[in-house]
Specification:
Layout lengths: L1 H21 L4 H41 L4 H7 L2 H21 L4 H35 L9 H25 L3 H10 L1 H7 L1 H15 L8 E4 L4 E8 L3 E6 L4 E5 L2 H4 L3 E2 L1 H6 L2 E9 L9 H7 L3 H21 L14 H14 L11 E4 L7 E9 L4 H18 L13 H17 L3
Antiparallel strand pairs: 1-2, 1-5, 2-3, 3-4, 6-8, 7-8
Helix pairs in contact: 1-2, 2-4, 3-5, 4-5, 5-6
């Protein structure tokens, strides 16, 4: 069959050459013109073939694939596997036609064939790369692989494919064995390590991140050093893309995930509760023992009534047996406004439908400072959704701040310019009323 094709090609070339010779053109020029015409004819045939394959064959294949229930073929179309495979056909035909077209230039045929061989090898590499990307997209659609840094792994595959492509092309053009090229790579390993330092570090980091399950796509992470606070969109060989809550994108070097510290909120999101840890400062001068009438008034608060009655009985029993002079308030035990306030806040949180009852819940004193006595609320909400969490926290503190005056307590607040202004006006008015 190849002999028949060679005979046909030879006859076509001779026919064209004879036409140019009959026109009185010398042999060298006739060979050149004949080759030019054949090249133009080849380009027209390849263009027509490529058009037919893309417009007819590919459309038929796409329609057939879309009717199938499997997803892998959809990824093949999306990543251009069919298109890249079709490009091989014109390249192969061109490769087979080169000796026929350049029959009159045998010394140039070898060089031109090497060029087509290089294009053919590169086209196969692109095809394999698109196949790898199709496999990556298919694996991403699987639940078991959805949180793995597949981008990093397949970027390494792409790099290996290009290295193999380069080695094959170089050995083909120079006529040397692959072992010689690999030996040269070994000799230049220091330079290669320097050039691909970030790539190597990123690949190692991707493996460690995946094996230790440190970060997954979709996790909420916070990395202050890089200004990242949001959702992980992508983990690839060199960078991790994080979409911040203001919709900006921050890119972090992949190896930074194992060399620097960061916060991952996945545990919080999986637990079903998010912590509220916030304090309010009470003016220490407003803390005191409660009078009997004040205690009776606070009994009207439903959440405190049973607690106050129980505490009154306990305190009365203790003071009766242990206190000699009950007229001195510091002797024995007494109820304080801050103590009842803490108990009220604790019971309020326990009865709040939006707090998580399985996690820690407490209202505690912190170290007093020049800004008063901090009362810290430590509780978890029963939702991890950010807007709902903020709303619940705001509602809790709205209520707590509003009830503070009922316990005859005062919030500590640094004086503002208005406070100084009012004080100076009061002093001025007082001085005016005093007789001279």
């Amino acid at each position: 069959m190849d002999l028949i094709n060679d005979q046909i090609q030879s006859e076509i070339y001779k026919f064209g050459l004879n036409l140019w010779l009959q026109l009185g053109i010398n042999t060298q020029t006739a060979h050149i013109l004949n080759s030019i015409v054949l090249i133009i004819g080849l380009f027209l045939i390849l263009y027509a073939l490529d058009y037919v394959l893309r417009r007819v064959f590919m459309l038929i294949m796409i329609k057939t694939i879309r009717k199938s229930k499997t997803k892998i073929d959809d990824y093949l179309i999306r990543n251009g596997v069919l298109k890249n495979a079709i490009h091989l056909v014109p390249l192969w035909i061109a490769q087979q036609s080169i000796p026929f077209i350049f029959t009159g230039f045998p010394e140039s045929t070898s060089a031109i064939l090497k060029v087509t061989d290089v294009l053919f090898i590169f086209a196969i590499t692109i095809l394999l790369k698109s196949l790898a990307h199709s496999l990556k997209d298919y694996l991403k659609s699987k639940k078991s692989f959805s949180n793995k840094p597949l981008d990093s792994y397949f970027q390494v595959v792409s790099i290996i494919l290009y290295i193999i492509c380069f080695v094959i092309i170089f050995t083909h053009l120079r006529g040397v064995s692959p072992s010689t090229v690999l030996g040269a790579f070994g000799a230049a390993s220091a330079i290669i390590l320097l050039v691909f330092k970030d790539t190597i570090l990123g690949f190692v980091a991707s493996i460690q991140v995946s094996s230790n399950d440190m970060v997954r796509v979709g996790d909420w992470i916070e990395m202050t050093k890089y200004g990242a606070d949001g959702t992980v969109l992508e983990i690839n060989l060199s960078t991790v893309k994080v979409q911040n809550f203001d919709k900006t994108i921050t890119t972090i070097p992949t190896y930074a995930l194992i060399s620097d510290s960061f916060r991952n909120y996945r545990g919080m999101q999986k637990s079903g509760g998010r912590r509220i840890k916030r304090s309010i400062n009470i003016k220490m001068g407003s803390i005191r023992f409660l009078e009997a009438d004040e205690i009776e008034n606070l009994k009207r608060i439903k959440l405190l009534k049973s607690y106050i009655i129980e505490r009154q009985q306990e305190i009365a029993e203790y003071n009766r047996t242990h206190v000699d002079d009950p007229t001195m308030l510091v002797n024995g035990r007494r109820m304080t406004n801050i103590g009842l306030f803490r108990e009220y806040v604790n019971r309020y949180l326990l009865n709040n439908k939006n707090t998580h009852k399985q996690f820690h819940l407490m209202v505690r004193h912190l170290q007093p400072t020049e800004h008063g006595l901090p009362i810290e609320i430590y509780v978890f909400t029963n939702t991890t959704e950010w807007p709902k969490y903020e709303g619940i926290m705001a509602d809790i503190f709205d209520h707590i701040l509003a009830v503070i005056p009922y316990f005859n307590l005062e919030l500590f607040e640094l004086p503002s310019s208005t406070d100084f202004h009012d004080f100076l006006i009061a002093q001025h008015n007082e001085n005016k009323t005093q007789p001279e």
